[in-house]
Amino acid sequence: MNTPRVKNIVVVGGGTAGWMAAAALSKVLDRSYHIELVESEDIGTVGVGEATVEHLKLFNQLLEIEEGEFVRATQATFKLGIQFNDWGALGDSYVHGFGSIGTELGLLPFHQYWLKAHHMGKAGPLGRYSLNTLAAERGRFMVSAKDVPANSPLANIGHAYHFDAGLYARYLRAYAEKRGVKRTEGRVVSVQQHGESGFIESVTLESGRVVEGDLFIDCTGFRGLLIEQTLHAGYEDFSHWLPCDRAVAMPCERTGPPTPYTRSNAREAGWQWRIPLQHRVGNGHVYCSQYMSEDEATASLLSQLDGKALGEPRQIRFTTGMRRKFWDKNVVALGLASGFMEPLESTSIFLIQSGIVRLMQLFPRLGMSETLIGRYNEQAITEFERIRDFLILHYKATTRDDSPFWRYCRDMPIPDSLAENMRLFAESGLFFREGDELFAHLSWVQVMIGQGIVPSGYHPFVDQLSERDLLGFIQNVGSVVERCVNAMPPHQDFIDRNCKAPVPQM
To answer: HSE of 395 in the Cβ direction (CA atoms, 13 Å)?
Structure first.
């Protein structure tokens, strides 16, 4: 493929995806590159996700954004994990926490030793041995301490954020514009392609202005103006495995200190999220329209709000899935233009970040390359499929029999890749991470055990410990975690002392 060297980069669409892309590229590319972002204030953004996984810290570090400044600018709070209620069975509750569980011993992770003690009836719930889980449940938080031994749980506390995605986009816009990114206001009314190659050459705005580019980044949301409406890259539908296709979102006033975790409550035909920020609480109800009406979903959400509703409910329609090509010709799709994974495990912003990092790693400096494009798509597809399997696990691993929706989820066929992982874990407690997939074995272990897949056996190396040594090891880990959590301040106190945001002007 013989194409011009990339010098003009056009980001079509703003929001979180557009401004994350513009900010990152303006940071890593020199000023010989021209970056222009085209967006229209008349086109709203979805903004479903206000919770992240740990990886956003790395993105902000790449941009050299200080954590306290970021937290104050986005009205953020801290997140140690996600609490899941009523997923495996009615009345069940567990936390998928970041960070570690216990400590490794020899060649084996802690949960293998826990399994033997659990089968003996001499171990507490798995979460009792996780600093993040115990601290989340007790409302405590701190960042990793520098004045403790390296092997202390307090030395390596995994955390993410709850934040206002709109404020983050605004912050990144200012960041990018300071580094030379040009913002153009306007709605795209037509797209021009090369007659032979089909490459996009320019977009035309309502004003008549033509914006030319060598590389286009599609951040136009579900409609995928460039990647789908123009290039027809195709879409892989996951809804037969992830049947929820609607959401209603509604913020409300805070009524107490923010929890250092996201809450996910399973409902009759889906689930509801609760995300505490410094200035409000984000709430939403993700549901399947085949089993619940919009009015029912909205009424259910409103009945669960902690405080006074702010604004009107926002209705969102989606089809869970991914583009068949994330990078097609000279267009790279990011954010909702690339696909949609429901925000059950807070992966939306991670997938934007991952797409940006992948583009930077495979940047077509000398022009479009089929080799680079092929590798980008291969990696993106694998990433989406592994996250897809992890999300499906939450629905499949259930004994709920109280509604048609949950009976469907319990009985539905699942991808072979997920079925094999579930069988392996149920038999042996083993899980093997594939490459650089987002969720490592600790995440899979917590969700599977949390939802009732408790392995019937454990690794034979565990038997090298005597029963006395095994139980002493388990008890010691629990005692260390307990002491460390007791040393942590309340979440609100940590925010007040270190990164309290100004009260927003109404």
So the answer is: 33
**Measured between alpha carbons, how far is 170 from 475 in angstroms, rounded to an integer?**
48
The candidate with the shortest Cα–Cα distance to 467, out of 103, 50, 116, is: 116
Q: Which of 57, 79, 116, 329 is catalytic?
A: 79
In sequence order, the β-bridge partners of residue 267 are: 270
237-268 pLDDT, tens digit each? 999 999 999 999 999 999 999 999 999 999 99
pTM above 0.85, yes or no: yes
Buried b / exposed e over 86-120, threshold 16 CB at 10 Å, is: bbbeeebbbbbbbbbbbbebeeebbbbbbbbbbee
Instruction: Identify whether 79 is a catalytic site residue.
Output: yes
Cα–Cα distances (Å) from 461 to 107, 108, 422, in that order, read: 8, 8, 22
Return the ∠ at Cα 96 (arms to 140 and 15), rounded to 5°.
85
Q: Which are the contacts of 122, defined by CB distance < 8 A and separation ≥ 6?
A: 471, 474
Distance of CA 442 to the CA centre of its chain: 16
d(CA 326, CA 17): 14
Q: Which two tokens stand for residue 406?
A: 């949950």
Please name each of the domains of the chain with its CATH number: 8-76+163-235+324-367 (3.50.50.60)
